[in-house]
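Lecture notes, continued. The same structure-token format from the folding unit now serves as the input rather than the output. Read the line below as a description of shape only.
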């Protein structure tokens, strides 16, 4: 695996910056799956039940936001030449705030306790202000005017909108009132389509060609897609009637276009042998097309079908698309980061482990098989109540397996570091030869 052109790997932050987020994030996804499995089919009758809200935020904050925050702190210095000031301190604050908020906010939904609301306000407010502020400072000093950089900026702006709407809506669940009740549908739109969707699009422009050896995305798509999606989301947020419907249709079409182009580029990859990461991306792209189709059809669905269709679309998006993309990236990024940081510290001191030592392809393939079983079982469980616990139980097991893979990679990095530190440093002559 070789880094892509224009990447500033020497500016990468300490390995602990992204790894602290990656290590615990899958545990929150497992907790969300267990909660839905225990609550039973009623939990998914609409997206506004307490259990659904709690599970969605366990997943969105505890898993997605954690992984995305760690990846941003890693990517900005490397891709944009924009080091985040005080990245280790920022990572500590953001990780602590997200972890606490990912527990407190679901507690609020399940119990309505005012103390949970106050705690979630404080923890998530600090986490998001720190993350957005630190990344904005880094982006302001970016040396690379790449479409990926602009896409990341728009994703951060979407996060700011989603977080603000969430803070306005939260008092509803502690027995209070909220002036934002009329726009509560906008919070998941900006969180999922804006923050998650735009960040995946922006990052894919870099990582898909690099990890899958594909041709680059068309330059026009790189430059126009993220701004067009952001603009359509903004129009949909303030418009009504036919204009709003058309704006949402453009968002769906934009993401479907991204999925189609990505699938085409992956079919043209230089390395014909497939791997687990590629398989996970294919699942993600299929789920993104399905979600886009469901979103586009929503205005024409019978009223009685809409609550279930909305929940089904959210599950497909979170588990089919977002989880698949994150899992695909982690199976590539985690071993690469472990190998790269060992090379930077100990090159010439001894034999360095290869990438497969940290996360073997056979283990990634087991993850892909597990995810295939989950994607088959979840829709069946939503149709047949007796199978409801099976699908979400399998997903919890898959999440724990991913957590184990990341933890083992970190442990093997630590063991390799200890072994190499015990070896004598190479002499200047050895460095000269190398």
């Amino acid at each position: 695996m070789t880094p892509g052109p224009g990447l500033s790997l020497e500016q990468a932050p300490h390995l602990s910056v992204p790894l602290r987020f990656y290590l615990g994030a899958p545990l929150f996804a497992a907790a969300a799956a267990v909660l839905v499995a225990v609550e039973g089919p009623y939990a998914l009758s609409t997206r506004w039940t307490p259990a659904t809200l709690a599970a969605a935020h366990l997943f969105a904050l505890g898993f997605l936001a954690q992984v995305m925050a760690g990846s941003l702190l890693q990517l900005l210095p490397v891709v944009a030449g924009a080091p985040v000031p005080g990245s280790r301190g920022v990572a500590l604050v953001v990780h602590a705030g997200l972890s606490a908020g990912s527990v407190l906010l679901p507690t609020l939904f399940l119990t309505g306790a005012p103390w949970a609301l106050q705690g979630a306000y404080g923890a998530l407010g600090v986490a998001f202000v720190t993350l957005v502020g630190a990344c904005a400072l880094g982006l302001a000093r970016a040396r690379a005017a790449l479409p990926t950089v602009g896409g990341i900026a728009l994703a951060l702006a979407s996060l700011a909108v989603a977080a603000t709407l969430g803070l306005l809506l939260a008092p509803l669940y502690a027995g209070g009132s909220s002036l934002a009740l009329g726009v509560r549908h906008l919070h998941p739109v900006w969180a999922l389509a804006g923050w998650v969707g735009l960040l995946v699009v922006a990052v894919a422009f870099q990582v898909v060609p690099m990890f899958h050896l594909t041709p680059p995305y068309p330059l026009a798509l790189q430059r126009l897609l993220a701004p067009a999606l952001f603009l359509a989301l903004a129009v949909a947020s303030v418009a009504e009637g036919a204009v709003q419907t058309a704006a949402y249709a453009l968002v769906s079409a934009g993401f479907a276009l991204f999925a189609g182009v990505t699938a085409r580029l992956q079919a043209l990859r230089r390395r014909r042998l497939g791997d687990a990461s590629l398989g996970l991306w294919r699942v993600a792209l299929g789920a993104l097309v399905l979600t886009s189709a469901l979103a586009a059809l929503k205005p024409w669905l019978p009223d009685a079908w809409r609550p279930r269709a909305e929940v089904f679309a959210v599950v497909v998006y979170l588990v089919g698309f977002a989880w698949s993309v994150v899992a695909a990236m982690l199976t590539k990024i985690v071993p690469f980061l472990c190998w790269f940081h060992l090379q930077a510290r100990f090159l010439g001191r001894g034999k360095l482990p290869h990438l497969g030592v940290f996360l073997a392809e056979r283990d990634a393939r087991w993850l892909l098989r597990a995810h295939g079983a989950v994607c088959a079982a979840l829709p069946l469980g939503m149709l047949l109540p007796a199978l409801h616990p099976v699908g979400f139980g399998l997903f919890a097991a898959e999440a724990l397996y991913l957590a184990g893979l990341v933890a083992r990679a970190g442990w093997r990095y630590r063991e390799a570091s200890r072994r190499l530190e015990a070896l004598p440093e190479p002499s200047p002559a050895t460095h000269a030869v190398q």
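Point for the exam: The two ends are 20 Å apart (CA to CA).
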